[in-house]
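The authors assume throughout that readers already know how a fold can be written as discrete tokens. For illustration, here is how one protein appears when written out as sequence plus structure tokens:
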Amino acid sequence: MQQVAPWLTPPKIAAQLGVTPPKVLHWIATGELEAIDVATKLGGRPRWRVSPESLEAFLGGRANRSQAKSARRRKAAIVVEEFFP
């Protein structure tokens, strides 16, 4: 039989990542972090659980990737018009 990894709570994820639980809840509310609500009452206080796979996908999308440097912009040439003949 295959072992199922335990689902994670927002406080556990916050402790792992070194952030606050409200920050994790914000990621869930905005859809950045996929979670399910396991609350027993509909319309009650949500009890979020995050699968380890969802957390890995979230962290993978936020990984630091080296980005190609963009070309430096040149300053626009200043055009001086004389109004006096």
